[in-house]
Write a structure and sequence with these properties.
By secondary structure, the chain is α/β, with parallel strands linked by helices. It contains 21 helices and 31 strands. It is 32% helix and 23% strand. Helix 2 runs antiparallel to helix 12, helix 6 packs across helix 7 and helix 17 runs parallel beside helix 18.
Length: 736
């Protein structure tokens, strides 16, 4: 008689749970063919409906479906298995953010092509005919062709490489191949250059040395530890955490450095290469497909040792991760606001905890969340109180715009204009900061007052005069400026209201016609290469006045830049955001930190209509800690983060009635729990976004509340119409 228990065990062993990068509630069960051996973490291809989808074996099958009805795993893919640490991280992020696990997995499987073996690279070597042609004195060859043949004789290389080294195009090599003088060969995969931790390190100050020794000891010891590296702008924080990176490399481990903006990577990549003798791997949205595929695979293979990247780099499949660094940890750009909504700084701390490795949070203006964690001894703190070398912190002057009024249709105050003239006369550089892209934030008709608004969003259209367009900065819609007002038909009646960086640049050019002026904003620079080119011009002193937005506010070092002018220092203080004061202080402190970073002293002018505001007073007196203490106490009294919990629920529908009906349906099931307060529903500040009408709930709870359980108990029992979308944002940063 057959052993029934043994047959049940065999059936269980012949099935696995596979998590797929699709918005399902969890893993699906699949049958394992008899000739296939699978383990948790293996990448596999499986059928899903009529498609074939790549996924990850997540563990034993859940059961419940008869064995004979299960679809079979089609193939085990030839990629390094996903580590248990990364699988735990995917599950943790999904549970915390209330996202389908498959959508978190999709971020960790962002390059499906990398699951296949690396593609063969075709190169060209000198053929026998080419060898004879080079040797024959009467062979007629152009200088370019001859150079390519000589280089190919030294060793096979790609057409692009031969062309670059021969100072000609890649087409020269391909034409020589067609002529039979070169022959195609398969090149071995070229490993990435390895950073050398033994490379000569710079001399550190005593404060830097103490901090570097502390971090390197933690890396060598291993284990989970969070350290805030808190140093004033220009204090040399980068060189300190480079010492920790060197320690990770010495231990044979990988390191990850997260940046909030790709623009920050330009100078950092140069400094890294100088420090370690080789560049790191980059990871961001501007990488081409081939580069992304190679980098993802090399991170998984362990061939890449250091990655410097944007927040998505946190989900790369590191084989031997030993250190995470979050530079500018206070930056709101670390918060992803769409799809899976998460804060990369907080999730980086979680990944470090799961992997049991140290993590370093770096900032001159730490977030209040991090500051409170230090005060409560959850995080350690290392302090760099002074600028490196002879540099001194700049003097900050507050310009009261109620008294120092610019001329009509001008935006630079008399004291700032005077300082600009003196700076340029001294042969030094200046920076003008305004965190507003384009020419003007509002365009209206002088005849009837009609304002040009985005048809898809509750937002004004921003004029970009250089491109001759109006643009919505929320949905991306662009259109030309109408010749006539669509409301009253008046021709040529539109007026630009308020300044953007383009308008400030126009005024600066009118006042200082001989000055070389450049604009630095995300929409004037096409990717990191354009940013690098502009920074090279500034460093070479080919730019006298740099005018821009927050992309130039941090991370950049220009020795001859001695003057910073902030055109509208009050800009971030409006709008009801609970972090408005903190963010404004951080941003303006970072902007001010660009001045006087070498031997020449710096000075900063803050133009404000609220000189008595605590932010302006704290900046003028350089009293960051007092400002943070006051901000912390105000939040504590009100129970706002980091002393309480928040979550936002945003409903969106194609029409206003549908959004309102869904909001009422959800409101009927709102939790009624002690200490839990539900605010709303109410129209979101951006009541229409990309053509969808939005309604918002805000849930406020004590710090010890398990917000995810509260929300699960609320929304799991509500069935919304299929055209309605519900977005959950745990720990919201944006309130738009």
């Amino acid at each position: 008689m057959p052993d029934r228990h043994a047959s049940d065990e065999a059936a269980a062993a012949a099935r696995v749970a596979v998590l797929l990068p699709v918005p399902l509630a969890g893993a699906l069960d699949y049958r394992v063919p008899g000739d296939m051996r699978l383990a948790a973490g293996d990448f596999v291809a499986v059928p899903l409906g009529r498609r074939r989808v790549a996924g990850v074996v997540w563990g034993p099958a859940a059961g419940g479906v008869p064995h004979e009805k299960l679809k079979a795993v089609a193939e085990r893919l030839p990629a390094p298995p996903m580590t248990a640490e990364l699988r735990r991280f995917v599950d943790w992020v999904a549970a915390y953010t209330l996202s389908p696990p498959g959508m978190v997995l999709k971020m960790a499987m962002s390059v499906p092509e990398a699951l296949e073996p690396p593609r063969a690279v075709t190169g060209f070597a000198l053929s026998e005919a080419g060898r004879k042609a080079l040797a024959a004195p009467d062979t007629k060859l152009t200088p370019q062709r001859r150079r390519v043949l000589v280089l190919a004789a030294e060793g096979a290389a790609t057409a692009a490489d031969l062309g670059r080294r021969a100072a000609c195009g890649a087409g020269v090599a391909t034409s020589l191949a067609k002529a039979g003088l070169l022959e195609a060969v398969e090149l071995p995969a070229r490993p990435p250059p390895l950073p050398d931790w033994r490379h000569a390190a710079p001399t550190l100050s005593s404060a830097q040395t103490i901090a570097a020794d502390d971090l390197t000891a933690k890396v060598k010891r291993g284990g989970y530890a969070v350290t805030l590296l808190d140093g004033v702008t220009g204090s040399g924080k980068t060189e300190v955490y480079f010492a920790a990176v060197a320690a990770a490399l010495e231990q044979g481990r990988q390191a990850l450095v997260l940046l909030p903006e790709i623009a920050l990577s330009t100078q950092l990549l140069v400094r890294f290469a100088e420090r370690f003798g080789a560049p790191p791997a980059e990871w961001h949205s501007d990488l081409g497909p081939a580069r992304r595929r190679a980098t993802w695979r090399q991170v998984a293979d362990g061939a890449v040792r250091v990655v410097i990247g944007a927040r998505s780099a946190l989900f790369l499949p590191f084989a031997e991760l030993g250190l995470i660094v979050v530079d500018e940890e206070h930056e709101s750009s670390f918060k992803q606001e769409e799809h899976v909504i998460y804060h990369a700084r907080d999730m980086a701390v979680v990944r470090a905890s799961i992997a049991q490795i140290p993590i370093v949070l770096v900032s001159a203006t730490p977030s209040l969340e991090t500051t409170v964690n230090v005060e409560q001894h959850r995080y350690a703190r290392l302090h760099l109180p002074a600028r490196h070398g002879l540099a001194q912190l700049p003097e900050i002057r507050v310009v009261d715009m109620r008294k120092e009024k610019p001329e009509r249709q001008r935006f630079l105050s008399p004291p700032l204009v005077k300082a600009l003239g003196e700076t340029l006369a001294a042969g030094e550089q200046a920076m003008l900061f305004l965190n507003r892209r384009g020419y003007a934030p509002l365009t209206l008709c002088r005849e009837c007052g009609h304002r040009l608004q985005c048809p898809n969003c509750t937002a004004w259209l921003i004029e970009h005069r250089r491109r001759g367009q109006l643009q919505c900065h929320h949905c991306g819609l662009t259109m030309p400026l109408p010749a006539a007002c669509p409301n009253c038909q008046a021709v040529g009646s539109f007026a630009a209201i308020g300044p953007g960086v383009e308008r400030v640049a126009e005024e600066a050019a009118q006042r200082f016609p001989d000055a070389r002026i450049a604009v630095m904003a995300s929409d004037t620079l096409e990717g990191p290469h354009a940013m690098a080119a502009l920074l090279d011009r500034v460093a070479a002193r080919a730019v006298d006045v740099l005018i821009g937005t927050q992309v130039m506010a941090k991370g950049h070092h220009f020795p001859m830049l001695t003057l910073v002018g902030v055109v509208d220092a009050d800009l971030g203080l409006n709008g009801g955001d609970l972090r408005a004061a903190e963010r404004t202080f951080q941003l303006l402190h970072q902007v001010a930190g660009r001045a006087g970073r070498a031997e020449r002293p710096g000075i900063v002018y803050l133009q404000t209509f609220m000189p008595e505001h605590p932010v302006m007073r704290a900046l003028a007196s350089d009293d960051r800690d007092r400002f943070l203490a006051a901000e912390s106490e105000a939040r504590r009294v009100q129970g706002w983060p980091p002393f309480g919990r928040l979550a936002a629920l945003i409903l969106s529908a194609p029409d206003a009635d549908g959004a309102d009906r869904a909001a009422r349906l959800l409101a009927l099931r709102a939790p009624r729990l002690d200490g839990v307060e539900v605010l709303g529903p109410a129209p979101a500040p951006l009541a229409i976004l990309r053509g969808r009408h939005r309604r918002r709930f805000l849930v406020k709870a004590p710090r010890n509340a398990h917000m995810q359980s509260v929300l699960h108990g609320w929304i799991d029992g509500v069935k919304l119409p299929h055209e309605v979308r519900l977005q959950v944002d745990i720990d919201p940063y944006s309130f738009m």
